[in-house]
Amino acid sequence: MGENGENAVVNGEGAQQQAEPSAAAQQQQAEPTTNATNNTGASGTIAGNGSNGQGTQQQPGTVNYDFAGVEMPEGYELSADEQGRFVDVIKGMNLSNDQARALVKYGTEYASRVVQGVEQLRAQEIAKWGDDAKTALGADLGKVQGLCDTACRKLEAMYPGLNVREALEVTGAGNQIAIVRAFAKLGELLGEDPGLAAQNGAQGLNAAQGVAANMYPKTDWSRYK
């Protein structure tokens, strides 16, 4: 039994010795894992950044966004007020300055494309008005255009500095059939008698003076001529 007991003790000690390395091994295994985790966050590896996305990002509100020099479409300018509004929109998104600048550039380019699309639709609409007007006028198109030209010249002569043609072109009204017919009629009236406008004005003045004379018979209207 002494030998068995001694053997039991040896076996027990052996078992104890075997258990201790296992605990040490577990501790050694745990420590590298912790270090690996720390090293991953510090090194900014692909796997580490991919898992939490926090390797290189800054906290919200710590980025001073600078949009100076961002390439804008022709005719566009990012005012200080618009910059402030944009920063309010992206606040909390944790964007870097480069990301914010890229977003600004894309936004203005998109807005430019929208405006160009609207202008194209407007131009197509005005062109359609012209096609419809040509169809409605038929063989009288040339005559009507001549009368409209007369109307424009007479109006611009009566009101120096008034660019009637430009107004018709810019607004597209010059292709509207109703405006075309109205100008043609005006050109017809003004073209029949060069002094028609002055004559109509004189007649209107005489009529007004006649009404005033009847209302105020004791007034000497010659003093106001």
List keywords for this structure.
single chain; about 220 residues; mainly alpha; 8 helices; about 70% helix; about 0% strand; elongated; disordered N terminus
Give the helices and strands, then pairings.
Elements: H1 2-43, H2 46-52, H3 80-90, H4 97-137, H5 141-158, H6 164-171, H7 177-192, H8 196-215
How would you describe the shape?
elongated
User: C-alpha Rg, in Å?
Assistant: 45 Å
Let me know the average pLDDT.
73
Measured distance between first and last alpha carbons: 154 Å
Give the number of helices: 8
Largest sheet: none
Contiguous runs where pLDDT drops below 50 for at least 5 residues:
2-19, 32-42, 200-205
Number of strands: 0
Task: Name the beta content range.
Answer: under 5%
Structure characterization notes:
The protein is built from eight helices and no strands. The chain has 225 residues and is mostly helical. Helix 5 packs across helix 7. It starts with a helix and ends in a 10-residue tail after the last helix.
Question: How do you describe this structure in short?
Answer:
The protein has helices at 2-43, 46-52, 80-90, 97-137, 141-158, 164-171, 177-192, 196-215. The protein is mostly helical. Helix 5 (141-158) crosses helix 7 (177-192).
